[in-house]
Amino acid sequence: MNDTLRDTVHRTICAGATFDTNGVSYHLQGIYTQHLRDSITLCFHNLVIDITVNDTLRDTVYRTICAGASFDTNGARYYHQGVHTQFLRDTVSHCFHDLVIFLSVNDTLRDTIYRTVCAGASFDTNGVKYYNQGVYTQHLRQPDSCFNNLVIFFSVNDT
Questions:
Q1: pLDDT number for residue 1
Q2: pTM score, two decimals?
Q3: Phi, psi for residue 62 in degrees, rounded to 5
Q4: Edge-to-edge strands, sheet with 30-37
Q5: Conformational region of residue 68, where left means phi above 0, alpha means psi within -120 to 50, and beta covers everything else
């Protein structure tokens, strides 16, 4: 008497892919059974197929950069504000992976100070003292690492 043979195949496929065996394609997650007959022994054989489907992964990155700077990831460089998408393939599962990048760009800030002092006095800001009348510019780094241009209109009242 020949017993029915039973084999089990476990396969993990990426979303949108198929697993093909014995002329049948499987693309949905589940457990399937094929009833096969061996052509030599004429015994029946049950093949159990356990399919797991990895969904397409999606990661989101939020970045803020300064004007003129760039955000670099996976060999790509982004300079402009907007939503950027990379379509990547995972090196372990070989499934595809969407990386969505929300990029904000901080413009260079510009502040203006108007200051008038009496003759012989000075004006002190950000550790710099001004004695002579003129227009001055300071390039300051902000806490977010962006630059701020401070323009100082400095005048001296001689009277």
A1: 47
A2: 0.50
A3: -110, 120
A4: 5-14, 44-54, 30-37
A5: left
Identity (one letter) of the amino acid at 27? H
- Residue 155 in contact with residue 116, Cβ under 8 Å? yes
Q: Is there a contact between 149 and 111 (Cβ–Cβ < 8 Å)?
A: yes
Residue linked to tokens 């003292």: 129
Q: How far is CA 126 from CA 80, 118, 139, 142, 155, in A?
A: 31, 20, 10, 12, 18
Q: β-pairing, 30-37 with 24-26? A: unpaired
Classify residue 28 by its DSSP letter: S
The per-residue pLDDT for range 80-90, each reduced to its tens digit, is 999 999 988 87
Residue 5 pLDDT > 70: no
3-state secondary structure at position 87: strand
Q: Burial code of 131-149, b = ≥16 C-beta within 10 A, e = fewer?
A: eeeeeeeeeeeeeeebbee
Q: Which two tokens stand for residue 147?
A: 């630059």
